[in-house]
């Protein structure tokens, strides 16, 4: 008997679309309070998911969706760092 695996879905905090977890980029607030991109999807801490596009990041920043999801204030330099990393990852698609 062939079992159909359930694909885990997550909502992008930018565009608010439900997408397969594997297509999204996880942003994590670690227990130490650092905000980083989680390429493995397994880091400890509070996570939020974003499409790997600059447009979704811009919307999330503008609406403060990322700050609400991570329950932390995010300084501008972190936004810039995330943008550089996301745009770099987004070119692979």
From TrEMBL:
Cleaved signal peptide residues: none
Gene3D superfamilies assigned: YlxR-like (3.30.1230.10)
Domain YlxR: 10-83
Pfam family, one: YlxR
InterPro entries, sorted: YlxR (IPR037465), YlxR-like_sf (IPR035931), YlxR_dom (IPR007393)
The name this protein goes by in its record: YlxR domain-containing protein
């Amino acid at each position: 008997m062939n079992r159909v695996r359930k694909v885990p879905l997550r909502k992008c905090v930018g565009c608010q679309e439900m997408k397969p977890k594997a297509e999204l980029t996880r942003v994590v607030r670690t227990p130490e309070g650092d905000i980083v991109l989680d390429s493995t999807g397994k880091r400890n801490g509070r996570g939020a998911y974003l499409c790997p596009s600059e447009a979704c990041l811009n919307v999330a920043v503008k609406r403060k969706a990322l700050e609400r999801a991570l329950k932390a204030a995010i300084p501008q330099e972190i936004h810039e760092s995330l943008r550089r990393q996301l745009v770099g990852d987004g070119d692979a698609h």
